[in-house]
Write a structure and sequence with these properties.
Blueprint lengths: L15 E5 L10 H7 L5 E4 L4 H13 L7 H17 L2 E4 L6 H15 L5 E5 L7 H4 L16 E6 L4 H8 L4 E3 L7 H11 L6 H14 L26 E5 L5 E5 L9 H8 L7 E3 L4 E3 L4 E6 L2 E5 L2 E3 L4 E21 L3 H15 L8 E7 L12 E10 L2 H4 L1 H8 L10 E2 L7 E12 L6 E3 L5 E3 L42 E7 L2 E7 L3 H10 L2 H7 L8 E6 L4 E6 L20 H7 L4
Parallel strand pairs: 1-2, 2-3, 3-6, 4-6
Antiparallel strand pairs: 1-7, 4-19, 5-14, 7-8, 8-12, 9-10, 10-13, 11-12, 14-16, 14-17, 14-18, 15-16, 19-20, 21-22, 22-24, 23-24
């Protein structure tokens, strides 16, 4: 399956089959074996590195400097490495996290135990911590513009796919990366396979889209899908997706025969809308125009994605920074029956009087969720009071707070009980997204023979910075289309599906229609102001609205809904996973 050297490539090669086996650190361990043994593939890959994962790996590495990578990946390699080598299947992973060299060394040890001769490469250059002080003036917060004044504990630039392509060209069987973009896990192998140039913008953009669809694993095959009634047998474990990426960058999204779930226009559209912002989707290698994508059913469990327009790579690269936030703790109390608001106020006043006042903490978040007192069961008639504190003082945020709360158990509101006992404080990080000049990121691929090879920057054009995209005119609806949507008193979800997620402290929610008539209603009625009215939590926040007519969808970004995001957020739905379903439940007036 290994393609010949680039200079010997024919004009067109068959599509490369790139399989996903992980959507997050903790995903189904058997997925690698399922994808390797379930059908023909050329490349096995997966995503381990959510922003939160970088913080988890930092804590891991602080306990043992030889760690800092996703150890579950190594367990998967023990299961499939021999078969991959036998069948010529390449493995590309970002499981290297904060220590790609250490992870690559561990892959070699796995191979040695199995008696295999495996060529392992790794990619470096994403870790900016050694230069953080010099780069600090550039690292203003991407959303707020605030200067970086905190104490970074990790700082990783998002790399592209060309380091992966170089490693594969040099004959690597396994390529271990740190913080490359999720889509680069597909861009790199596709560029290697097809021999693309660094300015094959449309092909690269198509690969970015394919990578974005499959990077979250089973979310492309029916997971977290609004119209889950379309899944033929929801009792079967959902199969993981794969992308057949053609030489022009178009792709077929599919899954192995006989696996659970479904691949249809809806499941692919859902994933296209997941955790995006403006239609100009900037990656280090190219800017992919999501408002040019075309999606169509191409057979059972086969969806074709085509038409994606690519623009030159941005002049800047995104950086994921985690700051040391201090310590946090939360206590939750149950308030049953009558007078829930008064009970909550009594407890709050007594608790903070007992611990010396709210001002002793860096931050206090009190959330009261009332329940109807005449509900049919006690549980339904019980509200909740969530009290979260943050402090640089571990002791203050620990049992000095939670212990004081429990000591009120026999001395406060009637029916007092909490959902847990006193607990110690937990350290947390603050996610800080920023941009740095692409020229300040020095990517290096360490080849299987130990040679260190700099990865050249792709060409850039004009003054594109990834934030001020070229404006494309949306395709207008046919004059004969009659808009169709919910009547007053009907929920949005009766007509539309949605997918949501987090972008640091921002939340995104994409909502789409089955047809042009539904999209016409969305376009004409679901404004940013309407979303603020439907979602009280968004009132007073900036809501950005983007049209994606080719996939009959709108995308909304709600700025600041999740506070500082990731580990720091005190929001009920800290990663906005249920926000789309919440929007669907709202009744149109």
């Amino acid at each position: 399956m290994t393609p010949p050297p680039t200079e010997a490539l024919p004009q067109l090669r068959r599509a490369v089959r790139i399989a996903n086996c992980s959507g997050f650190f903790g995903d189904r361990l058997s997925a690698a074996k399922e994808m390797v043994e379930g059908g023909e593939i050329d490349v096995l890959t997966g995503d381990w590195l959510a922003e939160l994962t970088m913080l988890i790996l930092h804590k891991q590495r602080s306990r043992n400097p030889e760690l800092g990578y996703a150890g579950t990946f190594l367990r998967q390699m023990e299961q499939v490495l021999a078969t991959c080598l036998e069948r010529g299947i390449k493995v590309v992973t970002n499981a290297g996290g904060l220590n790609p060299q250490g992870c690559a060394d561990q892959v070699r040890q796995v191979a040695a135990r199995l008696g295999l001769d495996v060529k392992v490469a790794h990619v470096e250059g994403d870790d900016l911590m050694p230069r953080i002080d010099d780069l600090r003036p550039q690292l203003a917060h991407l959303d707020t513009g605030e200067p970086l004044t905190g104490v970074p504990i990790t700082a990783n630039a998002y790399l592209g796919g060309w380091g992966v392509a170089a490693a594969l060209t040099a004959g690597a069987d396994v390529v271990v990366c740190g913080r490359i973009t999720d889509a680069a896990l597909v861009v790199g192998p596709a560029a290697w396979w097809h021999g693309w140039a660094t300015d094959d913008w449309d092909a690269l953009a198509g690969a970015v889209v394919a990578g974005h669809v499959i990077e979250c694993g089973t979310q492309a095959t029916g997971g977290n899908y609004s119209w889950f009634e379309e899944i033929p047998d929801p009792t079967l474990p959902l199969g993981f997706p794969l992308a057949e990426v053609a030489a022009d960058g178009s792709s077929i999204i599919t899954k192995h025969a006989g696996t659970g779930g479904v691949v249809n226009v809806g499941t692919v559209t859902a994933q296209l809308l997941y955790e995006i912002a403006a239609p100009a989707y900037a990656n280090p290698d190219v800017v992919a125009r999501f408002d040019t994508i075309r999606v169509e059913q191409a057979g059972d469990d086969r969806v074709r994605i085509s038409g994606t327009v690519g623009e030159p790579a941005p002049l800047t690269t995104k950086v994921c920074i985690n700051l040391d936030g201090g310590y946090r703790n939360r206590m939750s109390f149950v308030l049953t029956g009558l007078d829930q608001q008064r009970k909550a106020q009594w407890l709050t006043d007594a608790l903070f009087r007992r611990v010396g006042g709210k001002d002793r903490f860096d931050e206090v978040d009190v959330r009261f969720v009332e329940a109807p007192s005449d509900a049919p069961t006690q549980e339904q008639a019980s509200g909740r009071l969530h009290v979260t504190v943050k402090s640089r003082d571990e002791r203050l945020a620990g049992k000095a707070f939670s212990g004081a709360a429990i000591e009120l158990a026999l001395a406060n509101y009637p029916g007092f009980f909490a959902t847990g006992g006193p607990s110690e404080a937990q350290s947390y990080g603050v996610y800080w997204p920023a941009l740095v000049a692409a020229t300040d990121v020095q990517e290096v691929v360490v080849l299987p023979d130990g040679t260190r090879q700099p990865v050249p920057r792709p060409g850039v054009g004009g003054t594109h910075d990834g934030l001020a995209p070229t404006q494309f005119e949306p395709t207008p609806s046919a004059p004969s289309i009659v808009a169709a949507g919910p009547q007053p008193g009907e929920p949005l979800g009766a007509h539309f599906a949605a997918r949501s997620g987090d972008k640091g402290g921002n939340a995104n929610v994409g909502i789409w229609a089955r047809d042009a008539a539904g999209y016409a209603w969305l376009r004409d009625h679901l404004t940013a102001t309407a979303v603020q009215r439907l979602l009280p939590e968004a009132a007073g926040l900036e809501v950005r609205r983007y049209e994606l007519p080719n996939i009959t969808a709108l995308n909304f970004v709600i700025v600041g809904l999740l506070g500082e995001g990731v580990a720091s957020s005190t929001a009920f739905d800290a990663q906005a996973k249920g926000l789309g379903e919440y929007l669907r439940s709202r009744v149109w007036q």
